Every structure is written in C-alpha cells, then in structure tokens.
Amino acid sequence: MSYLKMNQVNIGFGPSSERTEVLKNVNLEINENEFVAIVGFSGSGKSTLINLLSGLALPDSGEVIMAGKRVLSAHPDRGVVFQNYSLLPWLTVAGNIELAVKQVFPEMTAAQRKEHVEKYVDMVSLTPALLKRPSELSGGMRQRVSVARTLSMQPKVLLMDEPFSALDALTRANLQDELTAIWSKEKRTVVFITNDVDEAILMADRIIPLTPGPEATLGPNFKVDLDRPRDRAAINHNNEFIALRNKINQYLIKIKEDHEQLSERHNLTCPDLQPIDLRVMYK
Fold this sequence. Notes:
Blueprint: E1 4-13, E2 20-30, E3 35-40, H1 46-54, E4 61-66, E5 69-70, E6 78-81, H2 93-104, H3 110-123, H4 139-152, E7 157-161, H5 169-186, E8 189-194, H6 197-203, E9 206-210, E10 222-223, H7 232-235, H8 239-269, H9 278-281
Parallel strand pairs: 3-8, 3-9, 6-7, 7-8
Antiparallel strand pairs: 1-2, 1-4, 4-5, 9-10
Helix pairs in contact: 2-3, 2-4, 3-4
C-alpha cells in the first residue's frame, strides 16, 4: 500500500475569466522510505506540487493522502525544505533549529532540546558554527541549517523544493552527498524536486518527470537500479547511468517540443487579440 498518494489532483489559480490550470489529473504513489525525484521545467508547477503534498495548498479537485488519511492542512509529519533558507537573522544556528524543536516537541526539557539540536547540527557538519548567525554563514551553510531544522522535527515525509539550485557546483555536490548519507541512516520518505537529471539519478530510487505547464501532469516512472552508495566520480562511466540519463533527457526534450508545437498551433488558430490604440489610428 502506498504511503503518500495523489489521486486525480487538479489545481489552478486566478479568476474564471483568466484562470490558469497549473496541474491537471496528477496521480502519484510513493512507498514509505522511498526517495523519489520529480524533474521538470521552470514554471511547470513543481513548487505547487510540493505545496499540495505538504498541505500548504489544497487541490480544487482530487485528494492527497498520507498513511491512509486525507491531507487537509500542513503538519510537522511533512517537513519542507524550500529553495530559500528562511532563517531568522537574529538567531544563531542553534537558535533557529531550537525554535522548530520547541514547536514540535514542547515536552522536551532544556537539556534534551540542547542535545537534540546538537545532534542534527552535527549531522550536517555544522558543529563549529553552532553559535553563529545566518549573516556569518555562506549560502551552502545556511541551506545546511535549513535541512537540519527540518530533520530535527523528525518528519515522516521530507519534501524538498529545489533546495540546492542556488548553490555553486562544489557546495551542491557536497550537500547532495550529505543528504543521501543522512537519508540512508534516518530513512525518511523523500520527495525531491529538481531540474537536474544527473542530481536526480545520483540521489533517488525513482524519477518522475513533470510535463510543461499549464495543465502539467506527471509522466512515466524511471526506476534507478544503481547500487548505493553511488560514487559521483565513478557513476559518470557507468553504462546504466549513461543510458538512463539519455532516456530521461530524450523524454524531456520530446515533451518540451510537443508542448511548443501545440502552443504554436493554438496561437495560429486562436491568436491573442491585442488592444487597438485609437489615438494612433486617427493621428
């Protein structure tokens, strides 16, 4: 039985006269402790998908289900790591994480909280920066704090919305390795949003493309059968990796071309009417 599901989910925004259907007929099934990557183009609705899974947004129709219960609001069981760090600038690394821990585990004593916070700070290799404020940290370190804060809440599902997209290549690679190692130890259900196919293959058990929007939907599943742990240096010479990357990229290129051709045909048959400036006509 699937642990996290989306059944025929539809969502759009705007008034009826100018409404944009963002996601249409989305169906998704994820097993407990599975690491699933969603890959897609900018503007296809990936962040909206994360908001629906977290309960920060509700579908216009269809349903999101976790552990057999319908998702109707946000809950600490579903932790979210966003693209931006969302850290409080006046609090230290420890303070930012402790604030979340207090909300989720109010029964903890001060000593228990301190031990709990330090455990997750150490997990993302930030112990030397425990008492530093966000302004004293690099972008990669801030994102580590964000990951540690979410993990400290011990969510059953970890939702990550392109968390490494703003980082340089070396920092991104280090965080990919750290997150994969943490997942291997902690075993959480993970939905990881990315536009990087190599990143998805390196980290995930399964990859699902999101088609271009509007009216985006999920495409076919691509299973990643590569053994763990995955060595990023060796994997580039792995024939299975190369074949899978080519297969996913070819699919993404094709659906992008199909979408563009459909849009062109629509524009030819239903051109946008531009407002006429009567002052120019009668000048």
